[in-house]
Amino acid sequence: NQLAKTKKPIVVVLMKCDEGVERYIRDAHTFALSKKNLQVVETSARSNVNVDLAFSTLVQLIDKSRGKAKIIPYFEALKQQSQQIAAAKDKYDWLVSRIVKNHNEIWPNVSHRMQSCAEYQDYIYLEGTQKAKKLFLQHVDRLKLEHIDRRKRAYLL
Questions:
Q1: CA-CA distances (angstroms) from residue 52 to 13, 69, 148?
Q2: Which of 12, 9, 102, 98 is nearest to 62 (CA)?
Q3: How many Cβ atoms from other residues are within 10 Å of residue 152's Cβ?
Q4: How does DSSP classify residue 16?
Q5: From residue 30, how far is each of 40, 71, 91 by CA, in Å?
Q6: Would you give the DSSP letter of residue 44?
Q7: Residue range 88-110, pLDDT digits in tens
Q8: Element (H, E) at 13
Q9: What would the pLDDT profile of 5-41 be if each residue is shown by its tens digit?
Q10: Own/partner long-range contacts of 53-61 (Cβ < 8 Å, ≥24 apart)
């Protein structure tokens, strides 16, 4: 009731949209349609979808001189984020394969060498250090298997 009367800018942040409570989301959007200075942003902190958008939307409502933010529905934002993560993963995989040529490499040394690379920084920002390390270890395991196969073939010849 207080939301309906205020003239202050308000952003209603719908959380846990990854759990898909459609009626709740629909009701919030219906309510917001009748209010001039109220925006609804669908978010998921677990998936890190639209969290930054919620804050930037509030800032833009407060500072009318900026352009209006385009509110992206949760599933569209999730799709965009998934595409962004997939692209960052591909670039990071390419970087790892370019830098790591030996199966004896260790994570601290390699991560230190990659810190200045944009591909590494982007992937760490989106997915975190643990996932980057996991991909590194998978690459090292592949190199180790290739090394073992080469040794077997050389031994059998």
A1: 11, 12, 47
A2: 9
A3: 10
A4: -
A5: 10, 15, 41
A6: B
A7: 999 999 999 999 999 999 999 99
A8: strand 10-14
A9: 666 777 777 776 655 667 666 666 666 666 666 677 7
A10: 53/77, 54/11, 54/13, 57/11, 58/9, 58/11, 61/9, 61/10, 61/11, 61/37
